[in-house]
Amino acid sequence: MASSLAFSFFFFFLFSLSSSSEAAGSVGINYGRIANDLPTPSKVVELLKTQGINRVKLYDTEATVLTALKNSGINVTVAMPNELLSAAAADQSYTDTWIQTNIISYYPATQIEAIAVGNEVFVDPNNTTNYLVPAMKNVHASLVKNNLDKTIKISSPIALSALQSSYPTSSGSFKTELIEPVIKPMLEFLRQTGSYLMVNAYPFFAYAANSDTISLDYALFKQNPGVVDSGSGLKYDNLFDAQIDAVNAAMSALQYNDIKITVSETGWPSLGDSNEIGAGEDNAASYNGNLVKRVLSGSGTPLKPKDPLNVFLFALFNENQKTGPTSERNYGLFYPSEKKVYDIPLTVSEVNKSSSAVAPVAAGTGRSQVPVSGGGVSTAGNSGKTWCVANGGYSEEKLQHALDYACGEGGADCTAIQPGATCYNPNTLEAHASYAFNSYYQKMSRGTGTCDFGGAACVVTQPPSYGKCDFPTGY
């Protein structure tokens, strides 16, 4: 039964992929050059073409690279580095010259489609945040002078650290101190110019920092129970979608839900230090390979299902002169020798070929999302009918934390305890927590250890009584 369902799912996936390719998202790659052993730009362009990659993002406007990309058919995103923002913000004549030297000198033979003004400016130690929007406006005005504003978009990549809240996903919000000075003006600029927000999203960082509560399978797009957002009721089956929708929710909270997102960086390291949990070749191949399939399927996120995803993988090469932990030098899909670090599909045809040639990947051995004590999770259910309810004597803070966990990472179905729903009353923390704990417990087939939540829950043999609410006994 399970194998036939898996086959049916993958048949449906392949059919959807081939039938929706016109509306599918795009996969590009970041071409960083902080290394002393990389191939020449002309060889890199040939590598991109042989791999079917038709979008590339750069971190500057280096002349040899832009020249090599001429007449290649590859769309290019260039960047104005952070150190130039103060000059760009202060004087439009500076951006006029910059555009003439770095854009017009190569365009249209080099198909420049966007300019990234700065990179993760909000975490720049040189404090360039106040220059960002004025610099973007001056760059745009210089494009207007040259009639290029309709064909070349302007944006600026932000890190997820720009969010004050990202969990649950529906609570996504920007840091308060950034909203009025820079976030709102930037989003207004993007709206007025018909551009998009660039976002650097790395599920690897979230997993490495929270591997005790985030499932590795959830981070790698593998089979997992999923996570139901306690606010929206939407179900997420991967961390990437949840991160992107946290940004969508943050923009929506400011009334800018019409701004689309391009993921300007995302990736997973093939090697890391001993404390970089999850770094490794197999996980990198799973993340990037499954992400490509996810993007090329054409579907959007749960919050924006009709918006195809456009993603730039990080990165093309391992870069041996990058500073920081070992992972920083090992995000590449290729070694400098141009040999693949691991083999993943990068185009629709490759995805179709690989998916039809191999069996579906089974769920991995990631850590359980369940907060248990005294051993792991058994799949053997308790005999008879049992329920899981909140344990008396716990502080409201701990009980609320356990409730948030059950409805969030735990993936319990908490729609019945939302305002106006069948089990919202009695509107007490104990009643809502009991419903959520039981939902998770029943979903996990009443397995040993699945009714614990750090001691906040216990198993009972009589059906709980909270108003007129019926607690489920199985899924």
From TrEMBL:
GO CC terms of this entry: plasma membrane; plasmodesma; side of membrane
UniProt entry tagged with the keyword Metal-binding: no
GO molecular function, one term: glucan endo-1,3-beta-D-glucosidase activity
Domain of life of the native organism: Eukaryota
Keywords, ordered alphabetically: Cell membrane, Disulfide bond, Glycoprotein, Glycosidase, GPI-anchor, Hydrolase, Lipoprotein, Membrane, Plant defense, Signal
UniProt cross-references to Pfam families, sorted A to Z: Glyco_hydro_17, X8
All copies of domain X8, residue ranges: 386-471
EC number: 3.2.1.39
GO biological process, one term: carbohydrate metabolic process
Enzymatic reactions: Hydrolysis of (1->3)-beta-D-glucosidic linkages in (1->3)-beta-D-glucans
Record has Isomerase as a keyword: no
InterPro entries given in the database record: GH (IPR017853), Glyco_hydro_17 (IPR000490), Glyco_hydro_17_plant (IPR044965), X8 (IPR012946)
Gene3D superfamilies, per database record: 1.20.58.1040, Glycosidases
SUPFAM superfamilies from the UniProt entry: (Trans)glycosidases
SMART domains according to UniProt: X8
Signal peptide feature range: 1-23
Cellular compartment(s): Cell membrane
Similarity annotation: Belongs to the glycosyl hydrolase 17 family.
Annotated PANTHER family: GLUCAN ENDO-1,3-BETA-GLUCOSIDASE BG1-RELATED-RELATED (PTHR32227)
Protein name: glucan endo-1,3-beta-D-glucosidase
